[in-house]
Amino acid sequence: MTVRPPSQGLPLATGSPAITDVEFGRIRTLVKQLTGINLSDQKKALVVGRLGNRLRHRGVSSFAEYLKILQDPSEKIELQTAIDMMTTNETSFFREPEHFRILADHIRGLRPVPFPFKVWSAASSSGEEAYTIAMVLSDLLGTADWQVLGTDISTRVLERARTGLYPMERSAGIPKELLHAHCLKGTGKQEGMFLVSRHLRQRVTFTQANLIQPLPRLGPFDVAFLRNVLIYFEPPQKKLVVDAVAGQVKPGGLLIVGHSESLTGLDHNLTPLRPTVYRVP
Is residue 201 among the annotated active site residues? Predict the structure, then answer.
């Protein structure tokens, strides 16, 4: 086994700056403090790949210089930009579709449905999950008083989510009847794109929220989706996030996590209904 000296840089792509083990460690610590995400040693390439352009944009040639910028109290915008670049934002419409059937069944079982009926997409990324929820609610509740909130730590993806505009290939997971009912096909300059219709977009709000920081009162919600984000946290941060999100769900409401995630081993008072679905007592 070859041990790389801490001072040795890791060049990862032509034209990209090198990063030392010490610099990577400092970035890893900063990311964990701000987001709760733990970057493994294998993420050096990701750090250089995503932040290399920011170094060039700011006219610095090393990660040591860039770290000085990030630690400058007057550089809050650059710090947010760096966090935006480092957070993973993989999502799709109707991802893990069973959860949306569970949402629909939950609503059908409510007598009566409490209005306003509010659902939270707590790691909404570029908005596909929030708009999927909106399609389900629109079909079941029509013009009644329902709302969807999408939150994410990344301002960059939230800006994209607010537009409701996506490449046509992103529509592959949307059932045809819902695509025709709730989306508009782009023409002219927007050819190859589709737009979530106004009647859905006006029911969906997006705002920034850091799940490991104290949250403002956003709810209460009837259902919260907390999917495919817990996998990035270690147990202490995972418990913190679960408690914070569940604390904004009404008694008897649902908390839904991703199929690759589990609350096993966490100290919580949620009632498991089925794998990945929990009821708030």
Answer: no
Cα dist. 52→4, 57, 68 in Å?
A: 21, 9, 15
The rounded distance, in Å, linking the Cα atoms of 192 and 108 is: 36
Domain boundary assignment for the chain: 21-86, 98-279
pLDDT by residue for the chain (281 residues), tens digit each?
333 333 334 444 445 678 898 999 999 898 888 888 888 888 888 888 889 888 988 898 889 999 999 999 999 889 988 888 887 667 899 999 999 999 999 999 999 999 999 999 999 999 999 999 999 999 999 999 999 999 999 998 999 999 999 999 999 999 999 999 999 999 999 999 999 999 999 999 999 999 999 999 999 999 999 999 998 888 889 999 999 999 999 999 999 999 989 898 899 999 999 999 999 99
Q: Is 141 exposed, middle or buried (0-12, 13-18, 19+ CB in 10 A)?
A: middle
Q: Which of 26, 50, 156, 160 is catalytic?
A: 50
> 98-279, superfamily in CATH?
Vaccinia Virus protein VP39 (3.40.50.150)
**37: CB partners within 8 A, 6+ apart:** 31, 86, 87, 232, 233
Active site residue 267: no
Q: Which residues in 87-117 are b (16+ Cβ under 10 Å) and which e? A: bebebbbbbbeebbebbeebbeeeeebeeeb
Say yes or no: domain 21-86 is CATH 1.10.155.10: yes
Among 132, 100, 136, residue whose Cα is nearest residue 256: 100
Q: Which of 28, 84, 152, 201 is catalytic?
A: 152
- Residue 89's nearest CA partner among 119, 123, 133 is 123
